[in-house]
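Exercise: predict the fold of this chain.
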Amino acid sequence: MSKKKESQPEKTLVLDVGGHHVKVYASGHPSPLEIPTGPEFTPAMLVREVRRLTPDGSYSRVAIGYPGPVCEGRPAEEPRHLGPGWTSFDFEKGFGLPVRIVNDAAMQALGSYRGGDMLFLGLGTGLGSALIIEGVLQPLQLEAVPYRKGRTVEDYVGEAGLERLGHRKWRAHVRSVVSLLRYIVQADYVVLGGGNSRLLKKLPPHCFPGENSLAFPGGLRLWEGMPRELCGKKIEPPGGEPRTAAP
């Protein structure tokens, strides 16, 4: 009798979709691949380009970080900086695989989490946000919080705010917004990710730096769950005022 074959380990394809490019993380690849995006980029183009970059098809499931609200595992709104069709697209049919979708900031947050109550803020094209409390993920839409002169926090710390204000004023508003949002959600600490976080000369108090590469472990955790040892772990935030202090 032939021996029963052992089940092969699951291989996850992680797609971090952004306003300028998609980062493609696949099991077995040493570094992410990139797909340019833009205002004409559609989900059908995403499937086509991913298949072109990963022709071996060795993965068995897909995790997608989507740049917008996600409800019941589907995009709830069309993205602001990409083409149309995302809310009605059948991703599982397109890829021919099981697919899980979460807000892109939430996926980065999953990969960045190190314990306690964490607020993730992604400084990129817009402002992404997610909260993890004792290992439980809650996607947020803090970009809509009113801030100054009839504008939202995203209007000041997103890419448009950077272009309008210049680097020095933008950095000052980042510090103010981080303090405000951390106070609102009462987080132990903040992880600052997104491409524009690299422009900060110094991190605000209670902040850790994020890394875009953490989207990959975030995608894995979306399928496999949060490591149990992190859920009860307490984190000592670096410097600054006590967490209950007003901004």
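Check your answer against the key: The first strand starts at residue 12 and ends at 17.
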